[in-house]
Amino acid sequence: MRLGLALGYWGRGPNPAHLDLAREAERLGYDSVWTAEAWGSDAFTPLTWIAAHTSRIRLGTAVAQMAARTPTATAMHALTLDHLSGGRMLLGLGLSGPQVVEGWYGRPFPKSPLTATREYVDVIRQVLRREAPVELAGRFHGHPYAGDDGTGLGRPLKPITHPLRAGLPVLLGAEGPKNIAQTTRIADGWLPLYWSPFRTDVYQASLDGVPENFVIAPMARAAVCDDVAEGLLPVKAMLGFYIGGMGHAARNFHADLMARMGYADEARHIQRLFAEGRREEAVLAVPDAFADEISLVGPRERIAERLELWRKGPVTDLLVTAPDPGTLRVLAELNA
């Protein structure tokens, strides 16, 4: 099981520790470093900055939001950074949800998310292969554009720049069972939002027939500390925000996933508290048990014991969000 460093997205401003953490991860032998985006900082610019200050570690987006860019624009970002970094790019994509897609990007959330995702990946693959001009008679991502409001003058094009790698890895952040199953067919890897080594059966049906060398790379908060309850507070804060605030009460993929993992009542309770503006209560309502099983928190000996459970399952890459170089070092030593 390889280790990766997940830096996420910025809060109110750039995190001055991110570059140092990325450099330390590379020094410790971590395989990859990942950035993200929500509705603030983008994923590609910080990753490019990290690329310029590292030499070996692979560079991933976990995730770049599909609604933020057309698939050809995303492919341009990926092939450009792949060239600049000497072939280190990993393109992780996510569909996001209606609240973000319509509220932030001002676009309709696709009525057929599976079709929209499949078309998006298809266009990116065509760009990267550069075998012919991009053409797709798609419902969401048709190339050339054929809508009634167009000029009809568009023509198929292929990238002027030759991509460095036709097989640049494409990974998808999928949560629903059908979306995960499709991911195993059209992508090179899957980026689970929550993964519990105690509940791998939650995903078993979707992962049946997974191809050889398919990447499964969940994210997990890691912190070496004496007080487990205190160490879990950042995990609970993240869960409270995602489950309570990252989606509508009637359609929240994160809450639905928590429910499928055995915490349905708790997920709905967190949503209600968050909707009522009781955010601190929503965070505290996140069960310690749930936060604990999807993270690696506590003294070194406890983390070592739990890390073995992650290593025994189908996970190929563990992407850790770690607050300090010491935690990164401990995980590297335990995973050696």
TrEMBL record:
<dbReference type="InterPro" id="IPR050564">
    <property type="entry name" value="F420-G6PD/mer"/>
</dbReference>
<feature type="domain" description="Luciferase-like">
    <location>
        <begin position="18"/>
        <end position="315"/>
    </location>
</feature>
<protein>
    <submittedName>
        <fullName>LLM class F420-dependent oxidoreductase</fullName>
    </submittedName>
</protein>
<dbReference type="Pfam" id="PF00296">
    <property type="entry name" value="Bac_luciferase"/>
</dbReference>
<dbReference type="InterPro" id="IPR019951">
    <property type="entry name" value="F420_OxRdatse_Rv3520c_pred"/>
</dbReference>
<dbReference type="InterPro" id="IPR036661">
    <property type="entry name" value="Luciferase-like_sf"/>
</dbReference>
<keyword id="KW-0560">Oxidoreductase</keyword>
<dbReference type="InterPro" id="IPR011251">
    <property type="entry name" value="Luciferase-like_dom"/>
</dbReference>
